[in-house]
Specification:
Blueprint: H1 4-14, H2 18-25, H3 29-37, H4 46-59, E1 61-64, E2 76-79
Antiparallel strand pairs: 1-2
Helix pairs in contact: 2-3, 2-4
């Protein structure tokens, strides 16, 4: 669904720190840290993943999945608009 690197990149594009993402999503900062440190696809409770993804998207990023159309292929993240 989302990789730790995508989460970190999305926050960087939004100029958002881990604490802010935790507050906006209702997920603990420890969980955010753990998710971002995980290699490959983040493994977590589905509800937690949904909260993170929805928050990042509401704040203005588009998460590109490994199967999504992309010029270069692969996962990624970019600003909406």
């Amino acid at each position: 669904m989302i990789s730790g690197r995508q989460m970190k990149a999305a926050r960087a594009l939004l100029d958002m720190d881990q604490r802010t993402l935790a507050q906006l999503s209702g997920v603990s900062i420890a969980t955010i840290r753990r998710m971002e440190a995980s290699p490959g696809t983040v493994r977590s409770n589905v509800d937690t993943l949904v909260k993170i993804v929805e928050t990042l998207e509401e704040e203005g990023v588009l998460l590109i999945g490994s199967g999504a159309d992309s010029f270069e292929g692969g996962r990624g993240v970019r600003l909406k608009g």
